[in-house]
Design goal:
3 strands, 3% strand, globular, single chain, Rhopdopsin 7-helix transmembrane proteins
């Protein structure tokens, strides 16, 4: 990348969540707890989905992908943020900053594509149950997941390349606890209107486009549920969608607030607060939302614990 030769800044200073010493310890304990829940919870779902043959279905295949994303998504930003809350050294190298930018947006945009794919899976399961095993065959599920990852990779690559080619002359204080596009654009010593337009157009297209398709899927699902005469049948259909809908609202609510508004000094400060939701809290809540509301996941988890316990007893004997 030729633009890197024009870069005078070799490292950035992440300002973190807060500069108040009294809050830093409290925030560290809170965020570390959420991060631990996210790390362990998503890892458990991945293990359960892989180990239990009863969960080898399209819905849980995509859930496993989602947990895999969340597993690394929070790990891209939270450890650096936690170290910044305890240590005075909040520096990150230019290469490290660009890498963090790429990985964060790669995983985030892939999650948007996966949430859309999961809504399509629910649409087929509820509205076209007789053709479900044909429309959601193993090969098709793999292709849908692969497409989600490729789109996320290309989306993030476009932002990362353009951002890395910008000249950063002297200002290096990033108004955030991780390297994100809008705070970095504010530090560039050149006109960034093209980059800002790209953020609004491309990010808006991915976010709004996938959200609209999710809404369309659920409109068809709602119409179909209205035609179900059995109250038990309606409840069963709704129960398979509730967890996904909650995750969608959490994800898109924070994403729209962060990336679909102009980058002003006030908005950048607010973005730090909003970012805590989708980097720390949401990845920790996703396993709880799916595990606590899903009988099959709880059954598979109990079976896994029981099998492990029995194996330990056999080894002891």
């Amino acid at each position: 990348m030729e633009g890197l030769n024009e870069t005078f800044v070799t490292e950035f200073l992440l300002l973190g969540v807060t500069s108040l010493p009294k809050l830093q310890v409290l925030l560290f304990i809170s965020f570390f707890t959420f991060y631990l829940f996210s790390f362990v919870g998503n890892l458990i779902i991945i293990v359960v989905v892989i180990s239990d043959h009863g969960l080898h279905t399209p819905m849980y295949f995509f859930l496993g992908n989602l947990s895999f994303l969340d597993f690394f998504y929070s790990s891209t930003t939270v450890p650096k943020m936690l170290s910044g809350l305890l240590m005075e050294d909040k520096k990150i190298s230019f290469q490290g900053c660009i890498t963090q930018l790429y990985v964060f947006h790669f995983l985030g945009s892939t999650e948007a594509m996966l949430l859309m794919t999961m809504s399509y899976d629910r649409y087929v399961a509820i509205c076209k149950p007789l053709r479900y095993h044909v429309l959601m065959a193993r090969d098709i599920c793999i292709q849908l997941a692969f497409t989600s990852w490729v789109v996320g990779c290309l989306y993030s690559l476009s932002h990362t390349i353009l951002t890395s080619r910008l000249p950063f002359c002297s200002a290096n204080k990033v108004t955030h606890f991780y390297c994100d596009i809008k705070p970095l654009l504010k530090l560039a010593c050149t006109d960034t209107h093209i980059n800002e337009s790209l953020v609004n157009i491309v990010t808006g297209s991915v976010a709004v486009g996938t959200f609209i398709l999710i809404i369309i899927s659920y409109v068809f699902i709602a119409i179909h549920i209205q035609n179900i005469h059995s109250e038990q049948g309606r409840y069963k259909a709704l129960s398979t969608c509730t967890s996904h809908l909650i995750v969608v609202l959490l994800y898109y609510g924070t994403a729209f607030c962060t990336y679909l508004r102009p980058a002003t000094k006030e908005s950048l400060e607010q973005d730090r607060i909003t970012a805590v939701l989708f980097t720390v809290i949401t990845p920790a809540l996703n396993p709880l939302i799916y595990a606590l509301r899903n009988k099959e996941v709880k059954r598979a988890l109990r079976k896994l614990i029981s099998d492990d316990h029995n194996q330990i007893r056999v080894l002891k004997n």
